[in-house]
Amino acid sequence: MSTAFESQSASPDAWSLVGSLLWDRPREVSYHIIDVLGYGTYGCIYLAKTVSSLPNFTAEYKAIKCLSKRGLSPSQLLIQRQEIDLHLSLSSAKNGQHVNIVDMSSVIETKDSLFLVMEYCSGGDLYDAITSQHAAAADSGVGFAAPVAPKGSDGRHLNVHSDNSVLDAMDQIISALIHAHRHQVFHRDLKPENVLVAGDGSLKLADFGLATKDRISSDFGCGSSFYMAPEQQPPSSAGARRPYLPAKSDVWSLGIIFLNLRFGRNPWKMSRASADATFAAYINDPKVLDGMFPELSASALHFLHRVLCVDPNDRADCFEALELLHRIDTIVRKDASMEDCGEDRTVSSDDSSSSYSLSSSATGSSKSSIDDSSCMSLNGSHRRSSDEHDSIFHMEDDYGAKKMQPNWSLVSSAKSWSDMADEEEMDFSQPIEFEQQQQEVPDRFPKLSDMMSSMTTAPSVAAKVL
């Protein structure tokens, strides 16, 4: 009996697989696991290098996401496979592999694990790029600092202090989102931690662990609180709530990311009026945002007011968001004074005596401190503790990840991922009916190899290792 690993280590510890060879039989290639990039509740990320005896073979680095199947219920296994289904559909050669979405080239299944082989993004994640550059600016004492391009980088390089660079970054993220939405894949967890930086400086959308194909959803609290749309927030009571549109909730996240990029902070801690005085003030008067960021140009403010519209029915979709982004001539007004660009922002709600201060000068902050403050950590002092997983593929801090119901998967649709790739692009002109019923899940739980059997396009192949 063959095995996926040529080493004899069977320890569940993530580091025990370092040095092992993962064999991908259909591709006739092995992946030599050389390091652990990150780990969390649901698995870990490895750095691997391809090895093959094929002629003219060029070795390359890959990121391999390992998902454990041990001890998972059928519904949890469905959620695992849903991530694979959706990500593979966006890596389909027929659908057009988008340059700003992390490519998944292969899936290898063993008795206890699933290994998702993806392109390696050596620049880390967008969160680290944002915080490190804003920290350097704060340390410089002049409000900005020119970032140093990585050694060997010959492509674009993000500069959060440059309007053109930030607009380019947003263009990449929105373009990736449009590609996903056209193929009816809604991310539901857009945030800088889930945008990776490739070696050439380009940005790649990653981690589809909370994604869905449902045009409407009742998975409230699914995502990360800072970037979650108001209608997506966890219910504060047991009362019934109207389902939300994941396509529109994704757009809300774009607005928060935009402010993260250019100013290194969030406008509020949570988009729930009862929990956040700043957001409550914004609901009463959206122009509160103008006062919080007085340096913003009129075109940038218009973009933000459209994507951060509290009513999802009036909120822009991703197509309009991209069009409005292209109309932004400059993010920061050319006549903005240094006083306008100060970091302290205090907003008082008319119906609350409490005030909400946004300050980027706090010391001793860390990545986890975002949960305790409305501004991002900018002092660069953060070091991950031993029990904190890497952010490259966020798998632990997401609200609703453990309780999310499998609204859609290949099992419930009775389709292979390649069948899904053959479907026409989503028609956004069709009205959404909230009375749509979820399809029943059949009793039979298929093997991953059965689901992938119809795949004919290369190089996205899935290997079943016995």
Reported by name, the CATH topology of the largest domain is Transferase(Phosphotransferase), domain 1
* Straight-line distance between termini: 7 Å
In the predicted model, the low-confidence regions spanning at least 5 consecutive residues are 5-12, 342-466
Q: Looking at the structure, what is the overall shape?
A: globular
Number of structurally distinct domains:
2
CATH class of the largest domain: Mainly Alpha
Major sheet: arrangement of strands: 1-2-3-4-6-5-11
CATH homologous superfamily placement of the largest domain:
Transferase(Phosphotransferase) domain 1
Main sheet overview: 7 strands, mixed
- Beta-strand content: 5-15%
Averaged pLDDT, please? 74
Oligomer: single chain
The radius of gyration is: 22 Å
Counted by DSSP, the helix tally is: 11
InterPro entries: Kinase-like_dom_sf (IPR011009), Prot_kinase_dom (IPR000719), Ser/Thr_kinase_AS (IPR008271)
GO molecular function: ATP binding; protein serine/threonine kinase activity
Keywords: ATP-binding, Kinase, Nucleotide-binding, Serine/threonine-protein kinase, Transferase
Pfam families: Pkinase
